[in-house]
Amino acid sequence: MISEFDQGPLPTCPAPFNMAQYVLAHGETTPDKIALSVLGVEDWTYSALRSAVLGTATGLLEAGAKPGDRVLMRLGNTVDFPLAYLGAIAAGLVPVPTASALTTREVAPMIATLNPALILRDAQVECPDDTRIIPLEVLRAMRDLPPAQWHMGDPERAGYIIYTSGTSGKPRAVVHAQRAIWARQMMFDGWYGLGPNDRVLHAGAFNWTYTLGTGLMDPWTVGATALIPAVGTVATDLPTLIAKHKATIFAAAPGVYRQLLNQPDIAAMPDLRHGLSAGEKLPPATSAHWEAATGTRIFEAYGMSECSTFISSSPEHPTAPTVLGRPQNGRRIALLGVEGPVPIGKEGTIAVHRSEPGLMLGYLDAPDETAQKMQGEWFLTGDQGSMDADHQITYLGRNDDIMNAGGFRVSPVEVESCLTKYDGITAVGAAEVAVKEDVTVIAAFYTAATLLDEHALRRYAEANLARYKQPRLYIHLPELPMGANGKLLRAQLRQQFEASR
């Protein structure tokens, strides 16, 4: 047997198609049902949600944007984020959601690359001055405008763009087709166990793509209710909120589960069926602790910016905590070696068939880089794994040095390129290191004539890197380990650090 999963494709996405219309269509049958509750702050019915989205679409078009134009989103952790995102798509525009933690230095090259028609900006979020900026108060006023018509068209046309870190250190703009949302239905049974009567509480911020998909759009697609904690909610308060608001599914990153479990007593959650985890590998110890404390399981999913989540455990197909999961029905997944899919039980690169409806269109204006990620008919994720006879996949690490910071993939080159500009540093290497069981952080190893002021280094990083990219450790070394070809050996940095603990 070879390591390939293919149980038939998903039905073809209908045409003409609009992603936002598809997400909100089910809600038209239950207009007065609560679609979104920002806990303790505000509630949105499906009717109000639809009206605000289509009003926003009208406003963006009246502001001068035309179907196909890009719209950069520099918005904070508020309901404005999903309303603007869906409003842009409803109008046929291509929204580009970005993390609010990004600095002006990091956003400027994105603007130059994208050349957006509009920039939607909360004044609390960093962004270079630009004549294309639509202030938050103007954006909010658009909700009350007459509704636009859904912009229907080819499901293969560009729907949205998200940024991901690449090994080169330059964030890559990933272009997704409108049909990408159609592919997410494979997660409903393959990961979530999601239905219209569910109440899904997602612990992430509005402006995180994990929240946008799993916490908002997928529940809305089936007519369920999305629950989002208010800004400032701490992880240890989440069980009480889950109980109070009768959440049936809870979604978070592994770090939130660890924080939540760091308390002696956890409130009973009688309506909760299970938890969901994604963003990084869930430590088995965390999974076991959760199950012992709550009596429910956590179902984990694996994916990436180029293809969302496509391997998972689920209520229908539970797996051991040491296993990533199995490919969702409708996917075509393989573990590849040099000559194609490897035998069952052997290590290979996790790959997605190019026919996958959730696979990106490509990297923006980078056909060569897009082609480099393809091996014949397969898209290579860069992650290693092995598949057993039941198609369960065990994660075996990455074949590059990409780091994971709280669910965000971070290129060490990007961190290093920033820190090398700091006065006094002669060389620097960044690596993800373990500081205790199941906890890793980004560390910066540097050479300099003398030990540098760590507080000053931290201030420099804070001014130039998004928080999730900032090193938590700064370690002065006499020299950095280099290979025979002069290449930095980041794995050795990690191994030497962890051996010295």
Describe the 3D structure.
This protein is an alpha/beta fold and 501 residues long. Among the domains are: 123 residues, Rossmann fold (3-Layer(aba) Sandwich); 97 residues, GMP Synthetase, Chain A, domain 3 (2-Layer Sandwich), CATH 3.30.300.30. Helices cover 28% and strands 28% of the residues. It has 15 helices and 28 strands. The strands form 6 sheets. A 9-stranded mixed beta sheet has the order 3-2-11-10-12-13-14-15-16. Strands 1, 17, 18, 19, 21, 22 and 23 form a 7-stranded antiparallel beta sheet that branches. A 4-stranded parallel beta sheet has the order 5-4-6-7. Helix 1 packs across helix 8. The longest helix has 17 residues. The model has no long low-confidence stretch (mean pLDDT 94).
User: How is the CATH topology of the domain at 18-31 and 44-152 named?
Assistant: Rossmann fold
Distance between the termini: 43 Å
Task: Kindly provide the name of the CATH class of the domain at 18-31 and 44-152.
Answer: Alpha Beta
Radius of gyration over C-alpha positions, nearest whole angstrom: 22 Å
Mean pLDDT: 94
Helix content: 25-40%
Q: Strand content of the residues, in percent?
A: 25-35%
Decide which structural class fits the backbone. Answer: alpha/beta
Characterize the largest beta sheet: strand count, sense, and whether it forms a barrel. Answer: 9 strands, mixed
Total helices: the number is: 15
General shape = globular
Strand tally is 28
Q: pLDDT under 50 segments (min length 5)?
A: none
Strand order of the largest sheet: 3-2-11-10-12-13-14-15-16
Identify the CATH architecture of the domain at 18-31 and 44-152.
3-Layer(aba) Sandwich
